[in-house]
Design brief:
- The protein has 371 residues and is α/β, with parallel strands linked by helices.
- It has 14 helices and twelve strands.
- The protein has helices spanning 19-24, 67-74, 77-82, 95-104, 114-123, 168-179, 203-209, 221-227, 254-259, 261-280, 282-297, 303-311, 321-334, 349-357; strands at 36-37, 55-60, 86-92, 109-112, 129-138, 140-144, 159-162, 194-197, 214-218, 231-235, 246-253, 313-315.
- The strands form two sheets. The chain has a seven-stranded mixed beta sheet, sandwiched between helices. Strands 8-7-9-6-10 form a five-stranded mixed beta sheet, sandwiched between helices.
- Helix 6 links the parallel strand 7 and strand 8.
- The radius of gyration is 19 Å and the shape is globular.
- The termini are close together.
Length: 371
């Protein structure tokens, strides 16, 4: 597939250099160190018919917004669809490292947030990856110190954390600030609101020490702050049509998609089956995700964190393509992304084949699919 053409319909105004995102983007997630972690996982095969690849290498985050992967692998739902093709899982703590692994051929398929997917696609001039499905929506909240901030207008002059310069939540918060008519320099974070880029792992300590007054944060970080006395001032989902926006996608290397479409379809069947199982068994699924987190990190989330966090995440097969397009425009508006044409970032044909076979309606690519 050649690089996507620049078209007037999709062209966005150029305002800043793309390398900012290359340095800073994370997936929605629970950590920003560019580190791969394979601890606590084993390759899995259920036997039976083998597909065109002996192994499929799947990357994801040890994060609740990646619960489709956590649960699907933990419960063997994805492996069941793959038969004797072995699932080799890898976990990552940052979007850039997962994209690097995909580009290097270390993983074939990945669960990842919208900003790193956009960045990986644009940096490769449309040649590295495709988004092939959705995984999760929501799970992002503005939480604040109720003693200092009682209304949204009270944010002016306060110090609010986001996970990383240019990551999905950072872009969303900068856009929200702009919509309020306030001014903030995107790079420094200085302005009417102080945007303090803080790794999710240390945000709870930063809040406890008083060095930040709140955070625009993904789960479970948001609920960790609430457990420390913070209050939810805004759920980001309320800012989006139908209260839905993409937080986790499924991506695949174009090389693997071209060589092993049957394996890609099998993983997507496993993803669709996993999301259905999560919806039918929310409490069991929550426990399964927590067990997977414990196996990966050695520590499970307490009930006062995982319970509210889990309720705020919607698991979906639909990649919510229109919201990714909007997020890209927000990044351009904030000065964190160059003009880019996202045509070709999606290939939803395998997913729609799976959905049709299951008697489910097809999902749309918002005009950003392969031609």
């Amino acid at each position: 597939m050649s690089a996507p053409r620049t078209t007037p319909r999709r062209a966005l105004p150029a305002v800043a250099a793309l390398p900012l995102l290359a340095l800073a983007l994370t997936a929605c997630g629970y950590g920003s160190a560019a580190k791969q972690d394979d601890a606590g996982k084993a390759d899995v095969s259920t036997g039976g018919k083998k597909l065109s690849a002996d192994t499929v290498r799947i990357g994801y985050f040890p994060n609740l917004t990646h619960a489709t992967a956590l649960v699907g692998i933990q419960e063997g739902i994805i492996a069941k669809e793959l038969g004797s093709t072995t699932v080799k899982p890898s976990t990552f703590n940052a979007g850039p490292s997962e994209i690097e692994a995909l580009n290097a051929g270390s993983i074939d398929i990945g669960f990842i947030g919208p900003s790193p997917a956009i960045n990986g696609f644009t940096k490769s001039k449309g040649k590295s990856l495709r988004i092939i499905g959705g995984s999760a929506s929501g799970g992002v909240k503005l939480v604040v110190d109720p003693k200092k901030i009682k209304t949204l207008d009270d944010l002016k002059g306060k110090k609010i954390a986001t996970p990383q310069l240019g990551n999905t939540q950072d872009v969303a918060f900068l856009n929200w600030i702009s919509e309020k008519g306030w001014k903030v320099d995107a790079n420094s974070g200085k302005g009417d609101v102080s945007v303090v880029r803080t790794d999710n792992k240390v945000t709870p300590d930063a809040y406890k020490s008083g060095s930040i007054d709140g955070a625009w944060a993904p789960e479970p970080t948001a609920s960790k702050l609430v457990a420390q006395g913070a209050k939810v001032l805004l759920d980001e989902s309320t800012l989006w049509p139908d209260n839905k926006f993409v937080i986790t996608n499924i991506i695949v290397s174009q090389k693997f998609l071209g060589e092993h479409p049957d394996v890609v379809e099998a993983v997507l069947r496993g993803s669709v089956d996993t999301n259905a199982w999560i919806k039918a068994n929310p409490d069991k699924a929550k426990d399964s995700a927590n067990a997977a987190l414990k196996a990966l990190s050695g520590k499970e989330l307490p009930a006062d964190v995982i319970d509210p966090a889990w309720k705020s995440i919607q698991f979906t097969d639909d990649p919510l393509a229109a919201t990714l397009d909007t997020e890209a425009k927000h990044a351009v508006k904030a000065g964190l992304l160059d003009a880019t044409d996202l045509t070709g970032i999606y290939d939803l044909r395998p997913l729609n084949k799976v959905l049709k076979a299951a008697g489910r309606p097809e999902v749309a690519d918002a005009g950003l699919g392969v031609k």
